[in-house]
Structures are given as structure tokens and as C-alpha cells.
Amino acid sequence: MEVGSFDPVNPSMRVVNIYVAGTNISEFDNTVYIPQFVTSIRRASEALKQKIDYAKYDAVFFDHSIEEAYRLLAQDEGELFSACRVLDFGATTDGSLSFLIPRRNRLYLASQVSPGDEAEQMSPLITEITAYEMIRVMELTAEALGSSSS
Question: Which of 6, 8, 31, 54 could join 102 via S-S bond, C-beta 3.0 to 4.6 A?
């Protein structure tokens, strides 16, 4: 996550860009309302800490590529979707759908911008990551935004 400039009209708004595999997944709406966004990323960080055992889902995706696993998750509407969904921060990430996908003792962040009809033909953005790295990025972003809004 990259914290940018304040909105010149409303100082409680600020630019935040969210990157996955070098691509900005928040480019369509990257201005956040600081109090709400900080709350969202702190909750997301805490939720990630609670469900950090992604290895229990490894067998579900073992025989699938990360792209195939992403498509399975995108079509799921149950517990698996909820367990693996990440980077769901309201309007800032409405144009994307992201999952943490465990596969063969590694964890991948897969995200697709502009879900919809055309998304079925697009490959998701994929990067290997640890849950701890995601938590740290969210905590650092919350700190940066929290200290700048005071």
C-alpha cells in the first residue's frame, strides 16, 4: 500500500494506492476517508491474524494452478470464499476481487481488477506472500494514516 497526498478540499480524505504484483488494484477509486479506511485495514489485519492457518486449505487447491484456484474461489459463495477473501476495503477495492490461496506449502495473493464478464478471460495478478507480510503492510499503513490525521 502506498499512502499519497491529502485531498485539498477535504483533509479527512487521502490517496491510498493498493498494489498486487506491481499493479494498482485501487486506481479507479483511490481516495479514502481516513477514519473508515483505517478501521477497515485494522479489522482486516486482526481477521488475518485469527485465520492465519491457511495450510488447512492446501489440499483443496493442491491439484489446481493458482489461476484455477482463483476461479474456483470467485465462483464459491460459501465458507471457502470467506476464508480466503482479502483486500476487501469498500469502495477503494470494489473494482477488484482478491484471495489468499495456499498451495503446496506456499501462500499466494491473487487479485483481479474489474470483476465481471471480461474478468473471466483475464488472468489474475499473482504474487507469493506470507500472511505476516500482509499484516505488516496493513499495520504500517494504518499507522501512517492514523498519525497523519491527528
Answer: 54
